[in-house]
Every structure is written in C-alpha cells, then in structure tokens.
Sequence to fold (566 residues):
Amino acid sequence: MVLPAPFGQRLADGMARLGPLCVGIDPHAATLAAWDLPDDARGLEIFGLRLVEAAAGTAPAVKPQAAFFERHGAAGLAALERVLAAARAAGLLTILDVKRGDIGSTMAGYAQAYLGEGAPLAADAITVSPYLGFGSLRPAIDLAQAGGKGLFVLALTSNPEGPEVQAAVGPDGLTVAGRILRQLGQLNAGATGLGSFGAVVGATIQPPEGADAAALATMGGPFLAPGIGAQGAGPAQLAAVFGPVRRHVLAASSRAIAAAGPSVAKVRGAIGQAVAELLPALA
Amino acid sequence: MVLPAPFGQRLADGMARLGPLCVGIDPHAATLAAWDLPDDARGLEIFGLRLVEAAAGTAPAVKPQAAFFERHGAAGLAALERVLAAARAAGLLTILDVKRGDIGSTMAGYAQAYLGEGAPLAADAITVSPYLGFGSLRPAIDLAQAGGKGLFVLALTSNPEGPEVQAAVGPDGLTVAGRILRQLGQLNAGATGLGSFGAVVGATIQPPEGADAAALATMGGPFLAPGIGAQGAGPAQLAAVFGPVRRHVLAASSRAIAAAGPSVAKVRGAIGQAVAELLPALA
Fold:
C-alpha cells in the first residue's frame, strides 16, 4: 500500500493552489429551510453534496459539522458517509468536525471511527477536544501519524466562556491553551513544511501574550480558524492574533457561503469571493 | 403531553430500588471476539441487547459507549438506536456516553441529537465535555431541563494527563474542575432530592482539597464514577474522594461485567455480584 503524503503537506499544497478557505458543511434546520430542503437525512445529503460540488476546484477542504448529521441518527450518519465519499472523489480534503475526546481504548475507538483506513466515516482530519489532557489524544495521534491523517486540537476559542478553562494556569505557569499549543509544536517538530497536528484557534480572540504567544508562533501546524471576514476578524486582528504564522491559517466559513445557495453556481461564486477576500488578509 | 419526572429523581428512585451500578455497554473488538461475535454492526447489536437483557431488573441504568458504535459508521449507529430502544422498553435509564461539547447552534444540534424528544439516538442523559467553558453547554442544559433529561459533565478524571487541564487554576483561585462542580451545584440548587446535572468524577483520583472538595460536597447531583471495585477504588478511597455524598455515586462498570458473558444468566449474576460489592462501599 502506498501511504498518502502527510496531512499537513497535502493541506499546504491545497492552500497554495486554491487559498486558505475551508468550506463548512453545517446543515442547520434554518439553512435547510432556506434552501427549500426537508430537515431529514435526504435534505442533509442534498445540502452536503451541493456544497461539495461548489467547493471542488474552488477551495482545498470541506468541514462537515457532525452534530447536524447526528440529529438524524443513523440515517443522518449515512448521509454524512455519502457526503464524505463525494468530497474525497472530488479531490477535496475532508476535515470532520466531531470534537471527540476520551481516554484509552475509547479514544482509540474514536480514532478508528474517524481516521481508520476504510472506516465508513473516515476523514483526512478531525477536530478533537483535550479536556482529558493532551496525552489522552495519543491513540488518535498515533493513528494519524501512521496513515497520513491530521488532527485539529481545540485550543483557544472566541466564545465568552472559553477562557474559564483555556486561560486557567498550570503549575508551570503556562495556560491550558498555551500548553496544548506547545505540545502540538513538539509533535510537529519533525515535519517537513507544515505539520499535520493543528489547533482550533478563533480569529476574534484576545491576542495571546508571553509564553502563549510564543507557543502559538512555533506550533508548526495549521490553525483552523472560524470567524474571519464579513462580521469577523479583519487583517489587523489576524496579524495581532497570528502574527507571521497567519500564512498557516485555514479559515472556516459556513453560514456566509451557504447563504448564497441553493444554486451551486452562486455558492461557488461566494466561495471564490471569500477566497479573494482572505488572500490579502492572510498573506 | 405528560412530562417525565426529572432525570435526577428517576435515577435516585432506580438507585434506591436496584443499587448504584450503571452497566457499561462497551463493544470493544476484543470483547466481541471473546463473546464469539463478529466485529460489525450485527455483533454490536447482539452484544448490546444481551447486556440490556441482563441489566433489566438488576441495575437501574445502562451506559452505551458511543465510540464503539461510531467505529462502524451509520450501520453501527443503527445498532445503537436499537440498543437504546430495547433499554427504554426494559425500563432501564439510558446514559449515552458521547462526551460532546461545542458552542452555539452546534451544541444545540448535539443536544437535539441526544436529548431531543423523539430523536433517533435520544437517551435519558448524556456525558458532555466542558473544554469550551461550562456556559457553552447551555443549549444542552436547557433541553435537559425542559424534557426531564440529565447531563454528566466531565470534571475530574483519573487518567494521568487529566490534571494538566482539570487542576489548572483560574483567576478566582478555583481549579477548572472545581469551577465546573460549583456551576453544577448552582444548576442543581432548586432540585427536589438528587439534581439532574451530574459530574464524571473518577473514583481513583487524588481526593480534592479546599474549595474543590467543598464544590464536590455541595454539587447536589449524581456522580458517574468509573473505577470502583475489583482493581479499582475500595471503601476507604471512596470515602476519601466523595465523603458523605458517596451515596450519590453511580458506579460505571463494563469490562468486569462483560467478562462474565456471553451467557445472559452469567452476566446477570456478575451484575448482581457487583451491586452486592458496591452497596456497603457506597452506603
């Protein structure tokens, strides 16, 4: 079996070719209604496939949000399987937003479910949650390294309650988020080019300071960042939060893009416009 | 529509009747093999249904571990739907171990998926992860309150990497876990008897001290605790960690119980024995 190139390398290639946008596939009930689609598994699938069609050749990656598929149980997950397969077939990188986190054999189960070779819901990368400690993610890290996959670990989010956990300070003086960024940096240390172990960092956060800022600057992997453009962060804020590593930011956008639908041509136009707006801000 | 009694009350009734054991349904590949079952959706379903049959009338609750069903994608989730339906029909409380956590409309999507009236994967309670801040769980709290459902929020876990996040200290001097326990206490304040908002607290943790210990003692909801009995925590350790609120501990056990299978009668015997061992330690 020929192994694929590491995720970080594949993502860097895609971003160099098509720009720093990841198209979110978030089938909210309200969005489905706006697209005149039923709020059921069929509606989820049609929505997802149209976004995949619009993103193919226009953006490097798509990010389905698992919660909205899980709302419809097994039938919703079957729709997600088909959306992921279509994205792969279209040459898109798939980042499945599942924010899983557990320990031991259960974490290994999640890793197999979403990063395992041939698993029905396998993606190129997933989001994971480190409440149980960074080391608890080890089974997913191992499986990602073995198969050329990637992770995006929740680090610094822009919701008002986030700092309650993320800004708490450990005995070494680092914040929880700073420690996660530093551990990601250690994982990415051996990578050629962009590492495969990224962080979720909101674009509209308070810019980190001191050791946290240093950990962010030397993390070495991609940043998955919601909240860029339109009502979100502009060039000045992006520079303040990410500094020179803003070139490693993959901006996630869903609502603004879906709002252009349901016409695939119009969605493709909205993706193109979003990329055009992002390029100077993240250059 | 007649609302069910609050989850905490239903759980307290069940624990008073049948004891403090929650039967984990963790279909590891190795356990399926030991039961001579295939590692596929059919194997998951047979395994789950046998544990449900053994638990009915012997323990108050079952706790399927979602990760092992997700490994088999939509087909695995269809098996989980049937296991949950069988547990409900058998009068068991269902605690679905999903450890979800997100913000805003995505968290609302998870809440609808697992606590929503009539959702295919709805349970009586779920586990949730607070890395994004306790307040990010609000959509799940609201839906649980409206429908007589419950939550178990990850707080203090016994894996070695847990303290890295959970013991970090906020500006108010409380640890991350202590703050979560205190916020749970505020949610449970108005409850009659046991509250519906519980915490996941490992039985083999370092006993909390100071403000953390106080927050644990006044949390007011149930504790979902892995690691009790056999190679785990004994009576002295349980008293040290939980003090007088050890009467609110629901002990989760899976491996020791599944090891008695595949005979349903033998699994039922193992459940009865586990309850008999737990009762004096948690009285």
Remarks:
- Residues 7-278 of chain A form a domain with the TIM Barrel fold (CATH 3.20.20.70).
